[in-house]
Write a structure and sequence with these properties.
By secondary structure, the chain is of the alpha+beta class. Helix content is 23%, strand content 17%. Its EC number is 3.4.19.12.
């Protein structure tokens, strides 16, 4: 038999590899679906590329690559039978098979047992060789199989780079000495005992001193009085005051010089009168929210609809997304995007074509991973209601919560997150992020990966007309820019409960000065109309350079819609920066309407009687000229300009209307692709980038200010270009169609139409800062609101429309 197996594998030996350092072994999830070893068909791992494939996708990989040898992994999970022994640890057969593979479920592992099974499968005949089979397999195959079985998963490889390092228990925690000095710490109103600082405060766990920090591992700083106190006293441990929750706190050891764990934290805090169970609970994965529980508790309860008996829903479009550790910002954005037909059509409608033409490594292909996630959310395959027999069984056991958590497991976005966050310092981390910033980041990736094909982000794109007026000459300049979201200010002064807010602020200051508990918080209630009014009001332009006066002048800018998008994204500017540079959220409630008419904000362009500012730029002063000038004319620049090198040719006014130095070589292809994906001609995009030293933002401005410039290069690919039906000159005309990507125009593709909208989705944030807290989203589907809270999907009883952070509107039909 050994000779037979050896002969059988001889033709495939050159294709079987042993994983080396740096190779990623995808043995926990399929590259095209969310199948895993726990799925009915198990998972097939290619013994050459180490990519994983579900039963429906392994044949495609075999046909495309010719790789014939796969390792089939299957995990059998079943509920543990209760017996006299009770509580026995899960039984595991073939203990080394899935050494690092955690259970892909949301239940207590001690209540279940599982058996792992592995075998080699040879395609196309599906010949199976059970593992382990050391005596009968060739040595190379045995080594390769053992290496695959014991290799860490592909995502374990990334953890040292993108996830926080594991924190160790302090050696001082068990034997920490605490002084019996009668110190009691109030629930708020803390300040440093040496410098009056009220931010980044640390409680020394030995003597109860409250002092400011100096280190920056938590993103904030101070005057170093906590460290200074340690050097004077050698009291080793301190806890950051605004991180204390029932789950723990941020603890630092001065002697060990690192963040540590304190298993006896509750006991150590109670010595100073702090009851951990009364503090604000942590967010979903241990990151803190706020030391003042009351306003945040209310917000958390309202947004998550806590206390209501929400009915779970299943099926197509009702699949949750598992939280990977502060990844809810990603989940909420993706849930909303894949509720939009354009994204469904692009990635799910073209699923087979995308999969068939995917590169050899589909884990690194944006379209493939978006299609995979879209199919996971919309197919209903991963959101099936429980069987009637399961319901009866669970009711008998009175384990309704277990049933709900068991059935609604959701899908894991791990592969897509790794791809879209690669190289990004924030999104590649395990920290909470701003959902608005991630939305723009993802739209940028969609743009870059949609060149030459349908671009679903066209639905969000619109043009903003900016009118700038010189206050002295009264002349004006009109310009247009592309945007995907409007940011509405939240004017506190327009709050309808302003008197109540002023009274609360006075009481809060008084309580803080007297170190008393703060009064019951008051949430500002602001009319949505006031937010729109603040958005449309003129704003001052800092360092405005007037081309009419050839000097600095006062200038004002107003913004209007040059086009209306098919889907309008509205962000409420709820966040500001504290003294520690950490974004903090304003406690606001805004009466956002279900229906919105912005028609009155349609741009009008140059009006009769208005005189335009001359099309001149501030003079560029070369470095050698500044020696004889007591006043450098760079003072007139509204923004720093890149000065040409002494080895570069002087600017050509014919080729560079913006006064920037043209480059002989082509701009970066990535920058060209971004502009062309927005509908601009390639040749025009190159000229714009050259004219602005490859600055994308200025290149867009250049294109907008030169929309009618004729291309004199006589490119053959422009001979058949159709007339531009969507230029700025007739931007106000109604056009519901997307311009073809193949069609070169001098303006970006927009889906202009009426400015009347209906609210269909809300992303809400709970917590004090974008760097902490939790996101959920509510989406209106089939006439009913649905709440998506990580893997849990339920019918919403009371969507928190007044507490949202990002609102999504769809255009109403003109009929």
């Amino acid at each position: 038999m050994a000779a037979d197996l050896g002969e059988l594998l001889v033709p495939f030996m050159p294709t079987i590899r042993v994983p080396k350092t740096g190779d990623r072994v995808y043995k926990s999830e399929c590259a095209f679906s969310f199948d895993s070893p726990e799925s009915e068909g198990g998972l097939y791992v290619c013994m050459n590329t180490f990519l994983g494939f579900g039963r429906e996708h392994v044949e495609r990989h075999y046909r495309k690559t010719g790789q014939s040898v796969y390792m089939h992994l299957k995990r059998h999970v079943k509920e543990k039978t209760t017996g006299a022994a009770g509580g026995a640890i899960p039984r595991r057969r073939n203990g080394k098979v899935f050494l690092d593979l955690e259970l892909n479920r949301d239940f207590n592992g001690e209540d279940y047992e599982y058996e792992d099974e592995a075998k080699l499968v040879i395609f196309p005949d599906h010949f199976e060789i059970p593992l382990p089979n050391i005596e009968e397999l060739p040595a190379l195959v045995t080594i390769a199989c053992d290496a695959v079985l014991n290799a860490p998963s592909a995502y374990k490889k990334q953890e040292p780079e993108s996830w926080d390092e594991e924190i160790q228990v302090s050696r001082h925690a068990r034997s920490l000495r605490q002084l019996d000095n009668g110190v009691r710490i109030p629930p708020s109103g803390w300040k440093c005992q040496k410098c009056e600082m009220r931010e980044n405060l640390w409680l020394n766990l030995t003597d109860g001193s409250v002092l400011c920090g100096k280190w920056f591992f938590d993103g904030s700083g101070g005057n170093g009085h906590a460290l200074e106190h340690y050097r004077e006293t050698s009291y080793p441990l301190a806890v950051k005051l605004d991180t204390i929750t029932p789950d723990g706190a941020d603890v630092y050891s001065f002697e060990e010089e690192e963040a540590v764990l304190d298993p006896h934290m509750s006991e150590h805090l109670s010595h100073f009168g702090i009851d951990m169970l009364q503090m604000q609970r942590r967010t979903e994965n241990g990151h803190h929210t706020d030391n003042n529980p009351r306003p945040r508790v209310s917000e958390w309860e309202v947004i998550q609809e806590s206390g209501m008996k929400l009915k779970a829903v299943f099926g197509s479009g009702y699949t949750g997304i598992k939280n990977l550790g502060n990844s809810c910002y990603l989940s909420t954005v993706l849930q909303v995007l894949f509720s939009i037909p354009d994204f469904q059509r692009m990635y799910v409608g073209n699923l087979q074509r995308i999969f068939d033409y995917s590169p050899l490594d589909p884990t690194q292909d944006f379209a493939t991973q978006m299609a995979k996630l879209g199919h996971g959310l919309l197919s209903g395959q991963y959101s099936k209601p429980p069987m009637k027999s399961e319901l009866i069984e669970q009711v008998m056991k009175e384990e309704h919560k277990v049933l709900n958590g068991h059935q609604q497991r959701g899908i894991s976005p791990r592969m897509l997150k790794a791809l879209v966050s690669r190289g990004h310092p924030e999104f590649s981390s395990n920290r909470q992020q701003d959902a608005h910033e991630f939305f723009l980041h993802l739209i940028n990736l969609v743009e870059r990966n949609s060149a030459g094909s349908e671009n679903p982000s066209d639905s969000f794109r619109f043009l903003v007309e900016e009118r700038v007026q010189c206050c002295q000459s009264r002349r004006v300049r009109y310009a247009q820019r592309v945007d995907y979201c409007i940011q509405l200010p939240a004017p506190i002064e327009a709050a309808t409960n302003r008197e109540e807010l002023l009274a609360y602020e006075a009481k809060r200051k008084e309580a803080e000065e007297n170190t008393r508990a703060p009064p019951e918080p008051v949430r500002a209630r602001i009319p949505f109309t006031a937010c729109l009014q603040a958005f449309t009001e003129p704003e001052n332009v800092p360092d405005f350079w007037s081309s009419a006066l050839q000097a600095k002048s006062a200038g004002v800018k107003t913004s209007r819609f040059a086009s209306f998008p098919e889907y309008l994204v509205v962000q409420i500017k709820k966040f500001t920066f504290g003294v520690d540079w950490v974004p903090k959220k304003l406690d606001l409630a805004i009466d956002v309407p279900d229906f919105l008419d912005l028609s009155r904000l349609r741009a009008t362009g140059l009006q009769a009687g208005e005189e335009e500012l001359p099309d001149l730029m501030p003079p560029i002063v070369l470095p050698e000229d500044t020696r004889d000038n007591s006043m450098s004319s760079t003072d007139y620049f509204a923004e720093p300009l890149t000065l040409p090198s002494m080895m570069d040719p002087l600017p050509s006014t014919s080729d560079s209307p913006m006064g920037a130095t043209p480059l002989d070589n082509l701009p970066p292809e990535e920058s060209i692709a971004i502009l062309t994906s927005m509908g601009f001609p390639r040749n025009h995009s190159i000229r714009a980038l050259k004219a602005t030293n490859n600055n994308l933002e200025r290149a867009l401005d250049w294109i907008f200010t030169h929309p009618e410039e004729e291309e004199s290069d006589g490119l053959s690919d422009m001979a058949d270009t159709e007339p531009n039906d969507n230029s700025f000159s007739n931007m106000n005309s109604h056009s519901d169609s997307t311009l073809s990507p193949d069609r070169e125009t001098s303006s970006p593709r927009v889906k202009d139409g009426p400015g009347r909208y209906e609210l269909f989705a809300i992303i809400s944030h709970m917590g004090a800062s974008t760097m902490s807290g939790h996101y959920v989203c509510h989406i209106k589907k089939e006439g009913r609101w649905v709440i998506y809270n990580d893997h849990k999907v339920c019918l919403s009883e009371r969507p928190p429309k007044d507490l949202g952070y990002i609102y999504f509107y769809r255009r109403l039909s003109s009929s």
